[in-house]
Specification:
With 270 residues, this protein is of the alpha/beta class. It has eleven helices and nine strands. α1 runs parallel beside α3, α3 runs parallel beside α4 and α9 runs antiparallel to α10. The longest helix is centred in the middle third of the chain and has 20 residues. It starts with 12 loop residues before the first strand and ends in a 10-residue tail after the last helix.
Length: 270
Amino acid sequence: MLDPKTLKPVHFLWSFEDGVATITLNRPDRKNPLTFESYAELRDLFRDLVYVKSVQAVIVTGAGGNFCSGGDVHDIIGPLVEKDMAGLLDFTRMTGDLVKAMRDCPQPVIAAVDGICVGAGAIMAMASDLRVATPAAKTAFLFNRVGLAGCDMGACAILPRLIGQGRASELLFFGRSMSAEEGERWGFYNAIVEAGALMETATEWANRIAAGPNFANAMTKNQLNTEWDMGLHTAIEAEAQAQAICMQTRDFERAYQAFVAREKPVFEGD
């Protein structure tokens, strides 16, 4: 099983402290693009986090003043031109599996975005649970600018739920950059902070989550995912069952006892 204290990934940086893991895309000379190998390693890491209870929140960010410039032009785009349909489908399914893994891991994921955040980088920010950006953040789902459909890695499913169908259509058809101010106003970004406060803010959010009822937080993320394709009555029943399960946790009892004692509850995730 993955040990967050000793993990040393090959294609990005990793740190872990007080329940909070930080993934840093670390090719700053190229604005942190992804390769076949880094896609796969990120996918496998998020899959493994399902079984790692000591990690309670995850921050994803980039080095050198940028988040991620998407798929590497030389390492990915060039080779894709030479692949047959089977090879292309292997690739697109693998990239989609990264988004599935980010959504399926129980830990809330916070994207801390500075500078360039485009292509697959914009998708990773989109697939996160919370997003904080600097004023310099430039976010673009630029697939149609390279002759591809905007329906990449779940963009047509997730993006309209964040910013609305019309605004998502604008970004996906035009491939234009969304400013940080637009992103916050539209609901893509939860907050904009100065560059010097980016990681401080993301870490503060992650620490607040890590100090919370982690079992219940995981249940919330699960319901946010599964209720997308439910009708209202089915969703209300699913939430009734989820909440009844949470009411059996010791954290729920701890919260009650703390309230009675007029103390702040200390949650332990069980």
